UniProtKB/TrEMBL annotation:
Name of protein: Beta-ketoadipate enol-lactone hydrolase
The EC number(s) this enzyme carries: 3.1.1.24
Pfam families attached to this UniProt entry: Abhydrolase_6
PANTHER family with a match to the protein in the record: HYDROLASE ALPHA/BETA FOLD FAMILY, PEROXISOMAL MEMBRANE PROTEIN LPX1
Keywords: Hydrolase
Key word Hydrolase present: yes
GO MF term list: 3-oxoadipate enol-lactonase activity
Lineage start: Bacteria, Pseudomonadati, Pseudomonadota, Gammaproteobacteria, Oceanospirillales
Record domain AB hydrolase-1: where: 39-230
Enzyme class: hydrolase
Amino acid sequence: MAETHTNTLMLLPGLLCDDAVWREQAEALDNWHCQIVDYGSADTITAMADIVLRQAPARFALAGHSMGGRVALEVIRQAPERVSRIALLDTGYEGRPSGEAGEPERTKRMALLAQARTEGMRAMGEVWSRGMVHPDRLSDTALMESILAMIERKTPDLFAAQINALLNRPDATAVLRALRCPTLLMVGRQDSWSPVERHEEMARLAPDSVLQVIEDAGHMSTMEQPQAVSAMLRQWLAS
């Protein structure tokens, strides 16, 4: 367990993301001790949650983006008494369907991994990132370069580990239903990976959650609309 800080906020990145995905928020929330987690080579959601709990103080706030939202829910499953509040951004909660129903997801993810191994992480990222942002942001050179650079900092082996974690992710329906801490759900209006409808389902499951939709943003809401995301997080942290 890490050294205790007053007002610690653990920030959990998503698939192939690092501190760049939370940088703007960590700077904006300067009255909090923000700690962005690196999962290392962990290849299960459970192992990633274990890393968070080892790095976190005894009591902390928690925010997870995309895959990081699933890790955040696993942290709650393992140690609900340690989490003071939770924010889940552009994420999901269900496990992968069993049998044939779950094969399309596996096929798509493995095709991206194969491309990463043969053509490199950046080439894969150029394909993958097209669906990750609001369509209007595809021409935003600075934003797209920051996303591609983040992906390029990862390796195919790390990509494989995180794909394994997602393909074998636990179902968190029961965790959402049991939430009793202040809960914020946030999603980009144009998120095609984790759509608004899924977050509405999560809001119905979580008893006292608040749902906020970020306008003019896709899946990478923290980077696409950093000021809007930071403002909503600041309000949630003060509530």
